[in-house]
Amino acid sequence: MQQTTVKTKSESSAIWNETDRRMMARALELATQGVGRVSPGPLVGCVLAHKDGQIVGEGFYLFEQVKHAETIAIEQAGSRARGATAYISLEPHAHYGRTPPCTDALISAGIRRVVAPIEDPNPVVSGKGFSHLSASGIEVSRGLLAAEAERVNEKYIYFMRTGRPFVHLKIATSLDGKIATRTGDSRWITGEESRARVHELRHEHDAILVGAGTVAADDPLLTDRSGKPRRRPLLRVVLDGQLKTGAESHLARTARETPVLVFASPSTAKAQTSLERTGVEVMKSPSEGYDLEPVLAELRGRDIQSVLVEGGAKVAGAFLDAGLVNKVTVFVAPLIIGGSDAPSAIGGLGAAKIADAWHLENIEIVKHGDDLEITGYPVEETFRPKLSR
User: Fold this and answer.
1) Which range, 7-11, 154-158, 336-340, 348-352, has the best average confidence (pLDDT)?
2) Is the pLDDT of residue 166 over 80?
3) What is the bridge-based pairing of β-strands 3-5 and 360-368?
4) C-beta of residue 170 within 8 angstroms of C-beta of residue 310
5) Contact 261, 235 (CB under 8 A)
6) How far apart are CA 23 and CA 20, in angstroms?
7) Burial zone of 220 (CB within 10 Å; 0-12 exposed, 13-18 middle, 19+ buried)
8) Is 68 exposed, middle or buried (0-12, 13-18, 19+ CB in 10 A)?
9) What pLDDT score was predicted for residue 97?
10) 281 catalytically annotated
11) How many whole angstroms separate alpha carbon 90 and alpha carbon 44?
């Protein structure tokens, strides 16, 4: 697999040495082992090491294990923790929650120095952990690999700062921007390697969201088939104003194993009863159209930290027009479908002028077989809602 990355943000070389960088990179690597198993909490990794670079303890956080990464690393190190530096991917907490304060554990273990890239945006934690450590005489260094740490915890950080789930828009398209042929055939535009990668993306998120058109056209399962463990099942969300999703659909038939939440208009009582008998949960939307703010608010109330939006064109366009997309991934296959009646990847209002087009930055390009995976982040100024222009 080939990868091209256009993103760089380095820290001051005068503050940290090569051992510091190597240990922090390891802490971030450990943190990612909790993907799918920590939400709605953060991904946290911890490495304890001495000046000579000898690692004496490691740990990463899993929600169900309760113990935090710092505590696990300290227990592994035992007496060797005394005098060590703790490299932690996120500010340690100083309050009593599900566990005692991690700062207390670090202080009691005799840690001499803590290196952490960023503050925890949780207002209960933010800054308090660093202050507690400093007041106890522990040297605290902040900022090492900060950009990388923010990327690892991008969903948690956004969720904490805004009170809204992180929205990741995923599209699979031909070279000419089509998501199906004029007859509606869409299986498969991308290759097997890309489809496996999509399941990895599903594994990273708490929910997956599509429109009624995608359900009608593809009858998808929308499950996480990455084979990796996850703490809670992937919530499958459908925007279906007229409640066209049938009781015989794959979604309905598997609703008791993997949850399905459908947003429908208030005028669908009869169809709602039929669908709910299968285990599907139906919520009434305040309008017939795609009113996305209440949808995201409902998901936030369920502690859904992140949503992968998979389609179709109307849903993708609605999220873009509303300025509610935080990340975009497009899988491009080397196909030309053609046809003026073949559906394009993005619907909605769209840009009136090229100057109004949505711009992405921090682009990453990865090759999967013959396909390209292109991922980027919105340039904030261009992702204002189009209707406000």
Assistant:
1) 154-158
2) yes
3) antiparallel
4) yes
5) yes
6) 5
7) middle
8) buried
9) 67
10) no
11) 6
Structure tokens at 112: 């001499």
Calpha distance 243→282 (Å, rounded): 9
List the one residue out of 248, 324, 316, 252 whose CA is nearest residue 282.
252
Place of tokens 């909790």: 34
What is the reported pTM?
A: 0.90
Half-sphere exposure (Cβ direction) of 56: Cα atoms closer than 13 Å: 20
Q: Express as a percent the part of the chain with pLDDT over 70.
A: 92
Catalytic residue selected from 18, 64, 70, 193: 70
CB 344 within 8 A of CB 316: no
**Helices marked H in 38-101 — which ranges?**
69-77
Tens of pLDDT, residues 313-336: 999 999 999 999 999 999 999 999
Scan for tokens 């799918």, then name that residue: 36
Distances (CA, A) of 58 to 68, 256, 273, 277, 295: 11, 38, 51, 48, 39
Following DSSP, what letter does each residue of 355-382 receive, concatenated?
A: GGS--EEEEEEEEETTEEEEEEEE-GGG
